[in-house]
Each structure stands twice: as structure tokens, then as C-alpha cells.
């Protein structure tokens, strides 16, 4: 962990920051596609679980992306 | 083969059709205009005697041995400096010419030691050869003292670790001086004095080692006598046979003639027909091969149950059985995904392919990654997104046709010296240079080279500046509309994005620290200056927006139509020799060989059918993910092939914690490196002198690596992988490395036409090599992009979270220098340490002064994750507020202070931006200090 934030949260937030200029819907799509294409399953699951827990330190776009990943399963 | 001596045509080839017809010694032939009579004669099978001429240097016309007679021409012109003309009739041999040549030779020999039998160049001396060719039987003036004044008592300069300068044997032909000028481009040598006092001098008459000489060896290669001679030849004698092979250092991938005497390597000589280097080399490739026989080499396998235990030397069988058993035990206890491997850019394509196959087919997961993760993974991502292929677009030769060269975050004269020399040659011919780099690298201003623009930006602001360049091109009407319309997609969306005022030079000038007008001028030059080529390095990729920056550069090239022909393109300068190849071979956890995603059913089925086992359709762990997973307990075993992740990867504290948490760490390496200190199994590796396989360089050129000796450890590295696989219950076997390449070609479309036999026939092949391009593809995307249309991508600048603060007010950026390579495991075990015995911290005079630091002081370098100590080197190459160091020595451990920030898309570490503080260590404390890096939370 870095500063108490799980690595997958930090990474998801960093991805989300790149698409902050896009609409939340668009950003979530891009983030979800990127995570789906490049993340190990255990990291994806951890992100989904974290998003579902209602944690506040995950960016809204990343939360939305995590929901998309869950829905696509 | 016996000793290979390439033909020397005396002067360089001239391009163009052979339209000039002439006759030489009765032989009619046609040659291109501008060809010298000497070269034409050689093509006609006639060797004109020569001493000052050689075909990698322009004609000089000083030795007068190559005189000829030409009908209608008075006197006896030098054939090297006389260009051919239509209808010319040339005679190269008759009594008159013979007499003239013997006269010249008499003068040379009268001032040359007559110690041929004991001379180190005996048998490889052009002066000796010419004495024979000209039929010299007497020297009327005598020799040495009896001939009068002479140079026989000049002292030999032995200061260079690799070659001697025996001045008494110099014939002042200037070949060494011209090689330094024309081939290397350093201009370190000169002819000092006039007339009889003329002599070769390094710089202002200082010893070679103290001069500007970069020890590339071009002068040694050019010398026709024993004057400049490798110490190894002096010591061992002349080599007797040649093995053609490929350098194991940087991504240029130079071809070399390994010259041996029996089984002993005497010297490495760059191969003139080498596609990447065309006869040139650097100090590492030519001279720094001694590590292969260094006593530190591990020659037998070793195992231990815990890292607190002593190593036990064991048999191969025991080491392999132990490794296989522990891997299976760990999988049984912690799951199929609890183990993985890291491949190396220092190993061959065949070795890398074997490891990724072991992971996918035997481990049953996709937990394979490569050291390119920490260097050029953003290149793979960015160029795949935009162009459709994870590779550079050009061959090295392409730069010869560039009119504008844009160098971003790359220091070619240090990190890719042979290509750097080629780039310098082109700049001296008139190409304009733009450098985008926080540091004033040598290319910005060196002899006869000066950048038209140096955009000295703040570290971490690459994307802001590339966007500003694109903004100028779009808003000032400099877009190549025809190219964009016919070849690209998503342009309109991108155009609207990049035209926004926030991307203007005026808006980003404050962010980047570069004046807006300078950005505008650079953009105009890039867009309108003719063929414009981009060359970039880790100063682009090793940032939190590395992938974004790669896409930004691709946008720039597409917008200006600078793709798909010679002289243009987007070109990653790969750090290690086989970065491209290790990526090509399926080392990334989401991609099978050829950059095909693991979720692609069709691709997976190719391998499932061939390997007889299912392959997971989801990505595995990347290296940083492996470290995180090791710490959280879900990843328990790692196989590391030829990498020293404990030294090279960022945030040493984090890496140490991860490696220390593993139940099994297997290291395959030449040495007990820093990573091996955490290992349970050490499998001795093979040096490039023992390997049989291929490397793929930065221009996608596949080159053969041929062994000059059998593996000193008894096994090729791919054999070890096969044996581990077999011990784990999977039948994996190859008879040879060639057979592995056959499997690669069978399963990977871009390698379809590649085989060892074809490589032996063609010398090298640049992939894609397929039905459409049976001899390879020097330049990509000529008619269409690999993905069809080139895709413009929006590249929003997002500042890094790593900022300078009151506590850490400076920004540290890291890199490499000429004489050392990567973590230094190889070069630190050679005489190259004479140039760089330790890493130093380059710090601006202002930043040093306010801290009371003077040149050579020991300083503490601290960041939020660690602290280390280095000697300070005061330098104004960086702007105020930026300091720089290298990571070649474990004792200083530069990565103790780098953080785990990374590129958003690929997790490539942000090595280039770390907020640090520098503090003077008082002399009294420095004297007692034990130089050891310290990571937060303890050391190891």
C-alpha cells in the first residue's frame, strides 16, 4: 500500500485522472475497458469489491467503471 | 570461419545508378557518378596500393601510394581523390607508377621501426603489406638513426585501458583523426604540428585517457599500422578466426566480428555489413566484454531453503528438481496464480519465448512480465493505440534523409552511441535539431553540432509541451491535410481538442518553463522543415504520463504527414539490446507473442493446439503488481531471468519487502546480483559469447547471436527452462535454438518468414517478415498503418502527483552514461570503471552553493521513500532545481529514493521525477561514513 491506499485504488484513480475531462459515462467506459484489458483478475475483483464497499477514496469515474466491470461478468 | 577480412574499397560508395563508363587496366565497367577511381578499380578487381584511404572515410589524398595514369591527364593523380568520368582510361600498374610508389614507401620506412617480426600488428599491417605489394627491396636513406631525424623515440601512450598509442609507428596518414571526425564525430584527435613535426595528438596533447576521446575504437580500427592497437592483441597475438555475432549492450544491436585465437576471444571488431552499425561501435560493445570471463561468474547452480542460509552448490539435476518441486508445492498451497516469471531484455528471443511458454503452458497463468515494464512499456501501448504496432517505424539508416530531427528525452551520444554518431553526421550535413530535455545533453552543443532549439522543460511536463507543439501546427494551418484525410481517423475530434486555448504555448509556457515563442518556433520547424523524425527515450516513457506522451508524439507525426517514408517517423531508442525482442515474444501479461491479446480466442487456439494445454484468457500480473501481490500474500514464487530487479526497479524498500515475502525466488543470472540476495535458487546463466539465438534491436532488426564457445555452465538457458517444465510434468523440448525460432515463426505473423537459415543468408531481417515482405520491412506504415487508419488520440496533460515541496525542493531525474550499462552488472566488471567508478549526483551550481556543496563533496540524497549518499558533481547541464544521477552502482542505489509512481496505462515507473533534498555531509562525518543506501523502515 502507498499512504494507506491499496495499490489497485491508487492505480484506478490514476487512470481516472487521465479522463477527467471526459463525461463520467465516457470516462467510466474507457477506464473499464482499460482495466479489463490489462489487469489481473484478482486486482479487478479487488477493485469491484472496494467500489461496492462504498469507499470514498475511489474516484467516481473509477467507481462507475468498477460497476461496469461487475455488470459485464 | 577463418579470420574474416572484409574487402576495403578505399573510398565510400556513392548512391545512384551506375551510369559512368570507364576502363581500368583494360577492364570496362560502369559505376555511379562521384565514385573514386580507386573504388572503381576495386570493383573491377584491381587493388590499387593505398595507405591513407579506407572505405569508411572520405578520400584524403596524402600518402600518394595510389597514384595512377589517366589518358589525357597530366601527371599521376591520386586515385582516391579522383572521381570517375565517362570514357576514362586508367592504368594502375606500370614501371613508372611502381617506381613512384617504391619511392614513397622508402620515405615511410626510413622513419619506421623495422621490428616487424615482434610487432603486435605483424600479419595485420598495411604498411607491411604495401612494402610487399610495391616490391620494396631497399631503403636508400637507411632506417632510423642512420636516416637522420626520426620519430623512433616517441613514447607510447598506454593511458587508455583498452588500447595503446605507439607514436613511434605512426605514419601520419590521418586515418585515426578522420575516423574520430567522420565516423564517431567526437573530434578528439588532431594532427599537431607541421611538416616533419606533424603527429597525432589527443586533444591538446594530453594522454588519450584524459582527452575528449570516448574510446569507441574507430581510430584503432582505422589505423593501418600497430600505432593504435588493442592491448588484447599486444598481449595475446593476432586472432585467427572470426565468429559473427551481435552486441549484448544497448538497443542499437551492433553486429560484431568476434575475433579469436583458438578458443580465446582476442577482440571485437564492428562488422561493416552489420545493418545497424555499418562498421562502427562504442566503448562498451567493442571493448567491455571481459565480464564474460570474470571470476565473479557463477558457474554451478546453487540452492538454499531460506535466504538466511548459506548457498549450497548442487548439480543441475538437483537444482531443477528443487525448483520444479517448490513451484508445484506453492501452486498446490496458494493457487495456480501464485507463481510467475520475469523475462529479460538481455536474453535472446528464444530464451524469452521459452520462459513465457513455461508460464503460460506449465504454470497455467499469464503472470509473465518483462523488464521493458520499467522502460518502454508505454511505447508498446502508445504506438499500438495510434499506429497499430508496438514498435518504432524506421530503420537507423532513415536518419540520413531527415531534415529535422526532434530528440525528446533521449541522450543518444551516451545511451545509443553508435546511432548518436550517425545522427551527428546528419546534423553536420545540415539537418536541423530540436532537443526537448531538461538537461543540456551533448547533442545540444558539441563540436559542429548545435540544436536549433533546446526546449529545456521542467521534468514531468512532456505532455504539456507536445500538446503545445501540436496546437501550433493545428492553429497555424500547418497540418498535412492530404495525409490526415487519406491515412488517419478521429482527426476532427483531436483537432478540436488540441486547438483549445489551454494547449497553446502561451498557456503552457509557465507550466513547462519554456518560452512560448520558442515552442512556436520549434513547432514550425518540425512541421515545415522537410522530413521530420522523432527519436525518443526513457525521458518520454518513464513518467506518469509516459503512454500519453508516446501518443502525443504519434499525433504530431501523423498531423504533419511525417510517417511512412525514409527520413521521418517515431522512433523509440531502446535501452537494452533485446527490449524490442522480449516484448515481441509475448512477455507482457496481457499479450501472446506478436502483441496479440490473451482474450483473443483465435490467437489462443493457435498455442493451445500446438502446446496441447489451455491458456488463460485474462491478463496476468505486471511486475509492480507482482510486488504488491507478494506483499499482500497472494503471490508466492517468482522466476527472474537475467534481471536485477532489486537494483533496477523503483522504490527499493517496496521491492525488498516484496522479494523478502516470497516463498521461492529463482534467479537465473551470470552473477550473484542484488536480487539473488533474496533468492532460494540461483541458476547460472550464459553470456552473449555462449548464447545461440537472436536479438531484435530498436529498429526491429533480428540479428543472430552466435556462440564463440559452448556454455561455460554446461547448458543453454532455454534448455534449463525446458528441464524445469519437464520436471513440472510438461513435455517441453527443443533440439536447438533454431527450432524455437521455427515455432515463433509458425505462430507469430510478424515473424512468419524468419528462420536461422534465412538470417544467415540475409545477415539480418527487420520484422514484419511475411509473404508480402519476405526480406523484412525497414520502414513501416508506408501505404497504410498496421491498424489500417492511424488513430489520433486525445492527450490531456495531467500533472504528476510528485511535486517539489519545502521538505523536498529539488527534482531528481535519473539516467545512464556512456561507459556503463543499466545496473552495471556487466560493465562494472570491466575496465570501464576507469571512466565511472561510482554514481555521482549532478547538481546545478546555484543549488549546490545554497547548500554549501562543492564539487566532490559527499551529499545525502533524500526523498519521501529513502535516502542514499553520493559524491556531488557541480554542473550547469540541468536547470536550477533539477539534479541528476545514474543507477549503475548498487552502493549508491539511486532507486532507494525513486517512488512507486507510474505511468497510468502501463505502470512504467516514474523514474524521471522524484522530489528530493540534497544535504552536505560534513567532511568529518563523510570520512567515517559507510556508503550504503538506506530505505525507510530499515535496510534489507
TrEMBL record, chain A:
Q: Which domain of life is it from?
A: Bacteria
The record's annotation in InterPro entries points to: Formate_DH_dsu (IPR021074)
Pfam families registered for this protein in UniProt? FdsD (PF11390)
Question: What is the recorded name of this protein?
Answer: Formate dehydrogenase subunit delta
From TrEMBL, chain B:
Q: Where is the 2Fe-2S ferredoxin-type domain?
A: 18-96
What InterPro entries does the database record attribute to this sequence?
2Fe-2S_ferredoxin-like_sf, 2Fe-2S_ferredoxin-type, 4Fe4S_Fe-S-bd, 4Fe4S_Fe_S_CS, Asp_de-COase-like_dom_sf, Formate_Dh-H_N, Formate_DH_asu, MoPterin_dinucl-bd_dom
Q: Which UniProt keywords apply?
A: 2Fe-2S, 4Fe-4S, Iron, Iron-sulfur, Metal-binding, Oxidoreductase, Repeat
Indicate the segments forming the 4Fe-4S Mo/W bis-MGD-type domain, all copies: 240-296
Query: Can you list the GO cellular component terms from the UniProt entry?
Result: membrane
Domain 4Fe-4S ferredoxin-type as annotated: residue spans? 159-192, 205-233
Record's protein name: Formate dehydrogenase alpha subunit
Q: Which residues form the 4Fe-4S His(Cys)3-ligated-type domain?
A: 96-135
Q: Which GO terms describe its biological process?
A: formate metabolic process; respiratory electron transport chain
Q: Which family does it belong to?
A: In the C-terminal section; belongs to the prokaryotic molybdopterin-containing oxidoreductase family.
Q: Which GO terms describe its molecular function?
A: 2 iron, 2 sulfur cluster binding; 4 iron, 4 sulfur cluster binding; formate dehydrogenase (NAD+) activity; metal ion binding; molybdopterin cofactor binding; NADH dehydrogenase activity
According to the lineage, what is the superkingdom? Bacteria
Q: Which NCBIfam families match?
A: Fdh-alpha
Q: What organism does the UniProt record list as the source?
A: Kribbella rubisoli
- Biological classification of the source: Bacteria, Bacillati, Actinomycetota, Actinomycetes, Propionibacteriales
Amino acid at each position: 500500500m502507498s499512504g494507506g491506499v491499496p495499490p489497485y485504488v491508487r492505480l484506478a484513480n490514476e487512470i481516472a485522472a487521465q479522463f477527467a475531462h471526459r463525461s463520467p459515462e465516457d470516462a467510466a467506459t474507457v477506464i473499464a475497458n482499460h482495466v479489463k484489458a490489462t489487469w489481473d483478475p484478482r486486482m479487478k475483483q479487488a477493485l469491484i469489491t472496494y467500489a461496492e464497499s462504498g469507499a470514498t477514496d475511489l474516484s467516481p469515474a473509477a467507481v462507475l467503471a468498477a460497476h461496469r466491470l461487475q455488470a459485464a461478468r | 570461419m577463418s579470420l574474416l577480412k572484409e574487402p576495403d574499397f578505399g573510398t565510400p560508395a556513392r548512391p545512384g545508378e551506375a551510369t559512368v563508363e570507364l576502363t581500368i587496366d583494360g577492364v570496362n565497367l560502369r559505376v555511379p557518378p562521384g565514385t573514386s577511381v580507386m573504388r572503381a578499380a576495386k570493383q573491377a578487381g584491381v587493388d590499387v596500393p593505398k595507405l591513407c584511404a579506407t572505405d569508411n572515410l572520405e578520400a584524403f589524398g596524402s600518402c600518394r601510394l595510389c597514384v595512377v595514369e589517366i589518358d589525357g591527364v597530366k601527371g599521376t593523380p591520386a586515385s582516391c581523390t579522383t572521381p570517375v568520368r565517362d570514357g576514362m582510361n586508367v592504368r594502375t600498374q606500370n614501371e613508372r607508377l611502381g617506381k613512384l610508389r617504391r619511392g614513397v614507401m622508402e620515405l615511410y620506412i626510413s622513419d619506421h621501426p623495422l621490428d616487424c617480426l615482434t610487432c603486435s600488428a605483424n600479419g595485420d599491417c598495411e604498411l607491411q603489406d604495401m612494402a610487399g605489394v610495391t616490391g620494396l627491396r631497399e631503403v636508400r636513406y637507411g632506417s632510423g638513426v642512420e636516416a637522420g631525424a626520426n620519430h623512433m623515440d616517441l613514447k607510447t601512450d598506454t593511458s587508455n585501458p583498452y588500447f595503446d598509442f605507439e607514436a613511434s609507428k605512426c605514419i601520419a596518414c590521418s586515418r585515426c583523426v578522420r575516423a574520430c571526425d567522420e565516423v564517431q564525430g567526437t573530434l578528439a584527435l588532431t594532427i599537431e604540428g607541421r611538416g616533419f613535426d606533424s603527429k597525432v595528438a589527443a586533444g591538446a596533447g594530453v594522454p588519450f585517457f584524459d582527452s575528449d576521446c570516448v574510446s569507441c575504437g574507430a581510430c584503432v580500427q582505422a589505423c593501418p599500422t600497430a600505432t593504435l592497437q588493442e592491448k588484447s592483441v599486444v598481449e595475446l597475438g593476432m586472432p585467427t578466426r572470426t565468429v559473427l555475432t551481435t552486441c549484448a549492450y544497448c538497443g542499437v544491436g551492433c553486429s560484431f566480428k568476434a575475433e579469436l585465437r583458438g578458443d580465446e576471444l582476442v577482440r571485437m571488431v564492428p562488422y561493416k555489413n552489420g545493418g545497424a552499425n555499418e562498421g562502427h561501435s562504442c566503448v562498451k560493445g567493442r571493448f567491455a566484454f571481459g565480464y564474460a570471463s570474470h571470476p565473479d561468474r557463477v558457474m554451478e547452480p546453487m540452492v538454499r531453503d531460506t535466504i538466511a542460509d548459506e548457498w549450497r552448490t548442487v548439480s543441475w539435476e538437483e537444482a531443477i528438481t528443487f525448483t520444479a518441486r517448490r513451484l508445484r508445492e506453492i501452486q498446490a498451497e496458494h493457487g495456480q496464480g501464485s507463481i510467475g516469471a520475469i523475462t529479460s531484455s538481455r536474453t535472446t528471443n528464444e530464451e524469452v519465448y521459452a520462459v513465457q511458454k513455461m508460464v503460460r503452458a506449465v504454470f497455467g497463468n499469464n503472470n509473465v512480465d518483462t523488464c521493458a515494464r520499467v522502460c518502454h512499456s508505454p511505447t508498446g501501448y502508445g504506438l499500438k493505440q495510434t499506429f497499430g504496432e508496438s514498435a518504432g517505424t524506421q530503420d537507423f539508416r532513415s536518419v540520413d534523409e531527415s531534415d529535422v530531427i526532434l530528440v525528446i528525452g533521449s541522450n543518444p551520444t551516451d545511451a545509443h552511441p553508435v546511432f548518436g554518431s550517425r545522427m551527428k553526421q546528419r546534423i553536420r550535413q545540415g539537418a536541423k535539431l530540436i532537443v526537448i530535455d531538461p538537461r543540456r545533453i551533448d547533442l545540444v552543443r558539441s563540436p559542429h553540432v548545435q540544436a536549433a532549439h533546446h526546449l529545456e522543460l521542467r521534468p514531468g511536463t512532456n505532455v504539456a509541451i507536445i500538446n503545445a507543439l501540436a496546437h501550433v501546427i493545428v492553429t497555424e494551418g500547418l497540418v498535412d491535410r492530404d495525409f490526415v484525410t487519406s491515412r488517419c481517423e478521429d482527426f476532427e475530434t483531436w483537432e478540436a481538442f488540441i486547438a483549445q486555448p489551454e494547449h497553446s504555448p502561451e498557456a503552457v509556457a509557465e507550466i513547462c518553463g519554456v518560452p512560448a515563442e520558442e515552442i512556436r518556433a520549434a513547432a514550425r520547424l518540425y512541421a515545415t522543415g522537410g522530413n521530420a523524425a522523432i527519436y525518443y527515450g526513457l525521458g518520454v516513457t518513464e513518467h506518469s504520463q509516459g503512454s500519453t506522451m508516446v501518443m502525443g508524439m504519434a499525433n504530431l507525426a501523423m498531423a504533419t504527414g511525417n510517417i511512412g517514408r525514409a527520413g521521418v517517423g517515431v522512433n523509440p531508442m531502446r535501452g537494452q539490446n533485446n527490449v524490442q525482442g522480449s516484448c515481441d515474444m509475448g512477455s507482457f501479461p496481457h499479450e501472446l507473442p506478436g502483441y496479440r491479446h490473451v482474450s483473443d480466442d483465435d490467437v489462443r487456439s493457435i498455442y493451445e493446439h500446438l502446446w496441447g494445454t489451455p491458456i488463460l484468457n485474462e491478463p496476468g500480473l505486471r511486475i509492480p503488481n507482482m510486488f504488491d501481490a507478494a506483499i499482500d500474500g497472494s503471490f508466492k514464487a517468482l522466476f527472474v531471468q537475467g534481471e536485477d530487479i532489486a537494483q533496477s526497479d523503483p522504490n527499493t524498500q517496496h521491492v525488498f519487502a516484496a522479494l523478502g515475502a516470497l516463498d521461492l525466488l529463482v534467479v537465473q543470472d551470470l552473477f550473484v546480483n542484488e536480487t539473488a540476495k533474496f533468492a532460494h535458487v540461483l541458476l547460472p546463466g550464459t553470456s552473449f559469447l555462449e548464447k545461440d539465438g537472436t536479438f531484435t534491436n530498436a529498429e526491429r532488426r533480428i540479428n543472430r547471436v552466435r556462440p564463440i564457445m559452448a556454455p561455460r555452465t554446461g547448458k543453454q538457458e532455454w534448455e534449463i527452462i525446458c528441464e524445469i517444465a519437464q520436471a513440472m510434468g510438461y513435455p517441453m523440448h527443443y533440439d536447438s535454438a533454431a527450432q524455437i525460432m521455427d515455432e515463433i515463426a509458425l505462430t507469430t505473423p510478424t515473424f512468419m518468414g524468419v528462420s536461422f537459415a534465412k538470417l544467415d543468408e540475409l545477415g539480418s531481417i527487420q520484422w514484419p517478415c511475411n509473404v508480402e515482405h519476405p526480406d523484412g520491412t525497414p520502414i513501416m506504415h508506408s501505404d497504410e498503418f498496421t491498424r489500417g487508419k492511424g488513430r489520433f488520440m486525445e492527450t490531456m496533460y495531467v500533472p504528476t502527483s510528485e511535486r517539489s515541496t519545502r521538505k523536498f525542493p529539488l527534482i531528481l531525474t535519473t539516467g545512464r552514461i556512456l561507459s556503463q550499462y543499466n545496473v552495471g552488472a556487466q560493465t562494472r566488471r570491466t575496465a570501464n570503471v576507469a571512466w565511472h567508478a561510482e554514481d555521482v549526483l549532478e547538481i546545478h551550481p546555484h543549488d549546490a552553493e545554497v547548500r554549501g556543496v562543492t564539487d566532490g563533496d559527499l551529499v545525502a540524497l533524500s526523498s519521501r521513500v529513502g535516502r542514499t549518499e553520493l559524491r556531488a558533481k557541480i554542473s550547469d547541464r540541468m536547470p536550477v532545481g533539477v539534479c541528476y544521477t545514474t543507477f549503475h552502482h548498487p552502493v549508491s542505489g539511486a532507486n532507494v529514493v525513486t517512488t512507486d509512481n507510474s505511468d497510468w496505462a502501463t505502470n512504467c515507473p516514474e523514474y524521471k521525477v522524484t522530489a528530493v533534498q540534497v544535504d552536505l555531509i560534513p567532511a568529518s562525518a563523510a570520512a567515517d561514513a559507510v556508503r550504503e543506501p538506506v530505505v525507510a523502515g530499515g535496510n534489507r
